[in-house]
Amino acid sequence: MSISRRSFCLLATATVLTGLGLSTPAFAENLKVAIVLPGVKTDKSFNQAGYEGVEHAAKELGLEFAYSEKVAQPDQPEALADYARRGYSVVIGHGGEFQDSVAKVASRFPDTKFVVVNGTEPGGNVAIMSFDFPALGYVMGYVAGKVSETGKGGYIGAQKLKFYVDLGNGYTKGFKAARPDGEVLTAWTNDWDDVAKGKEAALNEISQGADVIFPSMDNAVVGSLQGVKEKGKKAIGIYYDAISDWPDTVVQSAIFDMRGALLTTLTEAKEGRLEGKAYIYGLETPKATRIGTYHASVPAAVQDEAAAIIEKIKAGEIDVH
Amino acid sequence: MLRAIQYIYVLRPVWAVLAALLVGAGLIAVAGVNPWDAYGALFGGAFLDYYGLASTLAKMSPILLAGLAVIVPLRVGLLNIGAEGQIYMGGLFSSMAALLLPEMSPYLQVPLCVLAGAVGGGFWGMIPGYLKAYRGVNEVIITILLNFIAINLVSYVAGGPMMQEGAPYPYSEEIREGLWLPYIMPQTDAHLGVLAGIVLCLAAWFVFRFTTVGFGLGMIGKNPTAATYAGIRVRRNVVAVMFVAGAIGGLAGTFEVLGLKHRLYHLFSPGYGFDGIVVAFLAQLSPLMAPIAAFFLSGLKVGGLIMQRAVGLESTVVEAIQGLVIIFVAVSLAFRFDRGNWRRFLERRRLLDAGLAQGVTNNSGGTS
């Protein structure tokens, strides 16, 4: 039987397809990590933190890494699956919106480990990675409560996502622990990046008497801090030690360090210990979750009390939820 | 000869795409990647690989329907920039039908969901249609503005009243599996939506080509005054066409929810409505060409992502290439085939050739 050109093409295609199907990701020797980002890696915020975190961890641990940026929602499952097919043994979906796509894709690639940053449902070969938002929120609330003159704090979030609701609740609880008669006003702006809206929300809370504002959006935080600065009130920074940019305004910062968190998670992966469970980094992992620098106006006594509270939270003596 | 030149003109989007890819190759080379490898990954990944082809088809569903939602009104002289908003309204209404209606047989509820999505999008398209027909308001502006309203409405609903308890991202509860659209390629995301889109394209072609309704609509597009004189109810037809266009856009959103996402997500469409405009121009307003144009554009988008993963190009370069394709195609459409001009040109050439042939004998050049 002679092989015609057409049947040869079919045969070739079939061979390639089976080849793709059979090539299961190799494990161990050289760990290959891929991260799928919903936005651009230069957004000075969530996406950049994820990209730099993986880049840093790859350098530190000697891993091979790849990334895709600005992957729109409909493309996310395919991007994850494609990396798994290409033999990446750890595939990270950067953001809670990956929870569903990862769950869908993960069952098709049982040998690949998937990590959902800010995910909610671990299991099988899906790990989730997040921070203990309420714990650090509690500490911030405590400091804010001690610093506040009016007895009113303010919390500003973008959307009522689980983690940011938890963060606000922790903040409120901490604030009330410092001042049992205190009160925390909460505002949701529905926009992570709109600086003007962030400022508006802060001014609004200040006009209602709040004097320590804790904004938790992305770029919009800048607007809130600007508003707080103009009114001469105090604020809590988020994600990095914000006092470096706002020396007069920020009294303390809730540092959720994506770099440290990803390094810790990928170290687990490199040593073959990554499991389908929740990796929630709390105060006991200062590499990922820690407090920043105090403003000079915060009394030493308050700083000591806050340190004691951190120890108590670590020991499980305070329920922050 | 004239006919050959005419065909070259008909195929001008193809030449434009090739020229754009050539310029894009320069960009890729500047980014430090071999253009040959990059384009190999793009086209091989989008059209020849099983999974790549499946994602091309999954993406083609909303892009094709959005394209049809632009083509149909444009043939009647209405520019629908609002397909994006109609997609969102379709997604919103269909997911509401899927999640809020009491559970019933899928054979009843799936058509209900699809109908709800179509009506939602259609209603959104009818607003600019009505304002245009009875109040003379520019439909371009209204459709653009309605996009923002629809997008934000879905963000509000997906992050507020319909949001799943404790969700890590603004999205609704999952739609139960019985209501999902069937997949057309096993183990992938390619769903039935793309076939529905192709069927609708054929239907649109049939209506415009063979029915009196279609003829009347085409007439409104060419000359509304003449159409009125001929006894066609122009206003009523404008509203109806915008309803149909909106309904088609709504179906794009419906299939996206029922076929792909299975939840109502905040920001679930990354601009498919605007891709629809590109499809309409690529297809030169022909419903029959629309599937080809949509297939190509979806492949370009999927392949762009594969290219990014395979050779490590930054997303900005990939987007620049897609932008180049669109600009080149848009510009190419400005070159119109002018039969008279070309005939005169060919005539002159023939005279020149004849003159030259004479000039060989009596040694004097012929000019014209």
From TrEMBL, chain A:
Every ABC transporter substrate-binding protein PnrA-like domain range: 32-318
Location of this chain's protein in the cell: Cell membrane
Record carries keyword Cell membrane: yes
Pfam families tied to this protein: Bmp
CDD domains, alphabetized: PBP1_BmpA_Med_PnrA-like
Keyword Lipoprotein: yes
Position of the signal peptide: 1-28
Keyword line: Cell membrane, Lipoprotein, Membrane, Signal
Gene Ontology cellular-component annotations: plasma membrane
PROSITE patterns: TAT (PS51318)
InterPro entries in the record: BMP_lipoprotein (IPR050957), Peripla_BP_I (IPR028082), PnrA-like (IPR003760), TAT_signal (IPR006311)
Entry membrane topology: Lipid-anchor
Family, per entry: Belongs to the BMP lipoprotein family.
Protein's name according to its UniProt entry: BMP family ABC transporter substrate-binding protein
Organism this protein belongs to: Shinella kummerowiae
Automatic annotation (TrEMBL), chain B:
CDD domains for the chain: TM_PBP1_transp_TpRbsC_like
Keyword entries, A-Z: Cell membrane, Membrane, Transmembrane, Transmembrane helix
PANTHER family the UniProt entry points to: ABC TRANSPORTER, PERMEASE PROTEIN, GUANOSINE ABC TRANSPORTER PERMEASE PROTEIN NUPP
Transmembrane segments: 7-30, 50-74, 86-102, 108-127, 139-158, 190-217, 238-260, 272-297, 317-337
InterPro entries membership: ABC_transp_permease (IPR001851)
GO cellular component: plasma membrane
An annotated Gene Ontology molecular function: transmembrane transporter activity
Protein's cellular compartments: Cell membrane
Chief place of localization: membrane
Protein name as it appears in the record: ABC transporter permease
Membrane topology: Multi-pass membrane protein
